[in-house]
Amino acid sequence: MPEHPLSLPELIASLKPPLSLVGFGVEGRATLAFLRGQGLSGISVYDRGFSPDDVAALEGELPGCSFHGEGDWGESLSRGGGGTVVRGGGTVVRGGGTVVRSPGVRPDHPALSAAREAGAVITSATELFLAACPGPVAGVTGTLGKGTTVSLIEAALTRSGIPCRSGGNIGLNPLAFLEELTPRDVTVLELSSFQLMGLSGPKPGIAVVLRTTSEHLDWHRDVSEYRAAKRGLLAPPSESLHPRSESLPPQGESLPPQGGGQQVIFCADSEGAREIVTGHENGALSFSRVFPLRDGIGVVGGRAYRYRNGASEALPRLTELSLAGGFNQENAAAALLAAEHLGADPERALAAIAEFTGLPHRLERVGVVGGAGGVVCYNDSFATRPEATQGALSAFAGPLALIVGGSEKNADFASLAESICRHEGLRRVVLIGATAPRIATEIKNAAGMDREAPPMVMAGSLAEAFAQGLAGLPGKGVLLFSPACASFDMFSNYKERGEQFKALVANAGPAD
């Protein structure tokens, strides 16, 4: 890690020309806007989705940049990009170049490998931000709860009067606000396996690893690669705490650095999280919903305690959250530990965390159909993996109807099927999307001699599924829309899917 972050001019000067950008999704577009805003032009942009019409339109919209479809990536990138880079009116000679990889492009893509062999430096928006961020950074990863935990940390810091920004996978490329940051500003990043795979250079001073199972197995080769990618968040155990994590004077009773290294905070109940932090346990803080801990936060007998060197302190508000679901106790515990380490006042931080009502499409209470005492509807469209739906199911006793299914990501539904069959309050399962037949088969397989499968209904649309779910709850109960799958078979993204569900609820009855 460098002794000090780069200044913005130093960062731009460090980008070896010519400059290329691979992948032009949401993050890629924001990265290009940042680079152009720093006076760079002659940037070559590559995306497999570009048609000839797209190229013509983009080159008209963004003069000085060239756009390329996937067919010529390998040849063009290995030659050092598609053009020269101009800084401040002066032309820079072509060289091995710098390639900024967007998260959806694998680091071992053949075109990137060819560029690397030709002498190009492969980097990413996350790496660029971490190299130049002047203030403390906390990075949050895991399979479940990243966005909620980032938002909880931000709420806790804000309540304590600590200026902060959030970005990353939660929706905002942090390069978009890099120029606005001062050494006192904290940045909290949600970081996916895509963003962490191959991440080199400076690391966040605080690394939070939430419950981790498996995900994106349509992109990652296997679970091992997925978890190994997330290890990119962690600094080598011997490295000192990132200097910018010590630049913020404590606002309250902040925790001291543990063992002089990057502060690691992890879910002790998760085999995946434990695997990721292996070798970093010394000085780490952990959280558990199962047992007490030496250093961290544990929930024992339904009560939460903070543990320091084995001594405990009760935290009653941590089990009285506005957020539904016991799994959110994990997110809240992780957020409290991170916020305190960043100097947040413990009491103010805990109050902000307890009062937080959640993010859209994440177990969001959206209304009641049938008036008071009717069917309470929850939109959990962000649940794009089976484990997220299992957590949502555990938040409700019953009577309950579940809408589940979506596009295929090669997920394993066996454990979810077990949870569905064990749920005593589940009255009906409505299956939608491409995965519906496979989920139905898993549920039937999970229903052994000691339990029956709940009634199942297939639906051809979300509107039909909504009606079938209500029909399974005569008059009262909870209708939970938690797909456990991606949305791409029927919708453009989880947000569109969730908004359609919310519209169905609004049109069916008054929201409470």
What do these coordinates show?
By secondary structure, the protein is an alpha/beta fold. The protein folds into 3 domains: about 15-125, Rossmann fold (3-Layer(aba) Sandwich), CATH 3.40.50.720; about 135-355, Mur-like, catalytic domain (UDP-N-acetylmuramoyl-L-alanine:D-glutamate ligase), CATH 3.40.1190.10; about 365-505, Protein-Tyrosine Phosphatase, Chain A (Alpha-Beta Complex), CATH 3.90.190.20. The chain has helices at about 10-15, 25-35, 50-60, 75-80, 110-115, 125-130, 145-160, 195, 225-230, 270-275, 325-340, 345-355, 385-395, 415-420, 435-445, 460-470, 495-510, and strands at about 20, 40, 45, 65-70, 85, 90, 100, 120-125, 135-140, 165-170, 185-190, 205-210, 265, 285-290, 295-300, 305-310, 310-315, 365-370, 375-380, 400-405, 425-430, 455-460, 475-480. A 9-stranded mixed β-sheet has the order 10-11-9-12-13-14-15-16-17. α7 (about 145-160) crosses α11. The chain is globular. Mean pLDDT is about 85; it is low at about 80-95 and about 240-260.
List keywords for this structure.
alpha/beta, Rossmann fold, Protein-Tyrosine Phosphatase, Chain A, six-stranded mixed beta sheet, UDP-N-acetylmuramoyl-L-alanine:D-glutamate ligase, 512 residues
Quick description:
By secondary structure, the chain is an alpha/beta fold. The protein has helices at 8-13, 26-37, 52-61, 73-78, 110-117, 125-132, 146-159, 193-196, 223-230, 271-276, 327-341, 346-355, 386-393, 414-422, 436-446, 462-471, 494-508; strands at residues 19-22, 40-41, 44-46, 66-68, 85-87, 90-92, 98-101, 121-124, 137-141, 164-168, 186-190, 206-209, 263-267, 285-288, 296-300, 303-308, 311-314, 364-369, 375-379, 400-404, 426-431, 456-458, 477-481.
